[in-house]
Design brief:
By secondary structure, the chain is of the alpha+beta class. The longest helix is centred in the first third of the chain and has 42 residues. The termini are far apart. The mean pLDDT is 79.
């Protein structure tokens, strides 16, 4: 009888060891899954940075680019976001503006007796372009 008891104790001890081993593997596996899930979901929470750029080209009534024309952007709403920009055109008659948000802007161009106006519509992550003809 003591021999049967000894075998039963060995088998109980082995089952306990086996169960404990399975339990540890389950917690290691579960812990790894939690870490992977957290790493993947936290990575997708990063802020996306959008660019809003507008390029304005100024030409005269003959289609020739004009250098040194003062270009201004404005919008007819309260200044929640500042969209007023001023800059002069380069040799190609172009000026580049960057903004924080999507907007529809009134663009005016002035140099001496020349004047012209146009509309610039900003789009997410694209370079919005407009060509404005100035007249004397």
């Amino acid at each position: 009888m003591s021999e049967n008891l000894y075998i039963w104790l060995l088998s109980t001890d082995n089952n306990t060891k086996l169960y404990g081993h399975m339990k540890r593997n389950f917690f290691h596996f579960f812990g790894l899954m939690v870490v992977l899930f957290t790493a993947l979901t936290m990575n997708s929470c990063e802020d996306v940075v959008h660019e809003f750029k507008g390029e304005v080209t100024i030409i005269d009534n003959k289609g020739v680019p004009m250098q040194g024309v003062t270009v201004r952007t404005d919008v007819a709403v309260q200044n929640i976001h500042s969209v007023n920009r001023n800059d002069d055109t380069n040799l190609q008659g172009k000026v580049l503006f960057e903004f924080d948000n999507v907007a529809i802007l009134k663009v005016s161009a002035d140099k001496d007796n020349y004047h012209g106006e146009g509309i610039l519509v900003l789009v997410d992550d694209e370079l919005a372009k407009v060509t404005i003809t100035v007249y004397e």
